[in-house]
Amino acid sequence: MLYRSFIIILIATINTISLKAQTVTNNNLEIDLKLGVNIGGAAPLPMPQEIRKIEDYSPQLNASIEGTITRWFGTSKKWGGSIGIKLEKKGMRTGATVKNYHTDIVQGKGSISGYYTGFVKTNYNETMLTIPVLANYSISDSWKIRAGIFGSIRLYGKFDGYVSDGYLRESTPIGVKIKFENDSKADYNFSNNLSKFHCGAQLGGSWKAAKRIWVNADFTWTFSNIFKKDFKTISFNLYPIYLNLGVGYRI
């Protein structure tokens, strides 16, 4: 429903801008509608010593839809600037073997904080409204590259999972041992601790496949942690790092 509403608003906005742009210039303004998929995840940098081994990873289906306006400068139109509005999903599922991994788990009607050793399953999913502001360079009629910054507002977020096949040391690394064996699991949920805003850098390029069709690739690196600043349960930061692959239609 959210994607459908965004698509309707985006198309209406682009059509309005396109009509107005035609009265100004048909040569220096370009308007593109882009569809893509984000591949990547939220990664700790560097890899913390608590994570001993990544057992499994699934990038999920992270779709994106974007409208972009590019203004080219001068008669050569080598350099330009662009701004876009993008609705996108970023998510992943991972399983890891950890040692002394600080976390909070659900036990009965309450929760227990401590240091876990064993297997941890994580589900991460966010829907973002993103505004990229980029500098563009035209190598030729068929190749263009771009780089700049972006800001994102989180519309929906989820970060949860479970622990199994291990034990939790309550409160401290030498605290009371709580075992999870024989298919025993304990859940955790840090969705309410996700940050509302993200910012980062973007680097990408486009290749002209047909008269109005472009193939796009964009690498994004978020500088900010996915969690709020006052969230200390997980002792290391996680940074969304993604490659967006897709196609664009030149209006």
This entry's quaternary arrangement is: single chain
**What is Rg?**
22 Å
Mean pLDDT across all residues, rounded? 90
Number of strands: 10
Q: CATH fold name, please?
A: Porin
Indicate the proportion of strand residues. over 45%
Largest sheet: 8 strands, antiparallel, barrel
Organism: Prevotella amnii
InterPro entries: Beta-barrel_OMP_2
Domain Outer membrane protein beta-barrel: 21-227
Pfam family, one: OMP_b-brl_2
Q: How would you explain this protein's 3D organization?
A:
The protein is mostly beta strands and 251 residues long. It has one domain (2-250): Porin. Helices cover 9% and strands 67% of the residues. It has 1 helix and 10 strands. The protein has one helix spanning 2-24, and strands at residues 29-43, 51-58, 62-72, 79-107, 110-138, 143-170, 177-189, 197-208, 213-222, 239-250. An 8-stranded antiparallel β-barrel has the order 1-3-4-5-6-8-9-10. The protein is elongated and about 75 Å long. The relative contact order is 0.19. The mean pLDDT is 90.
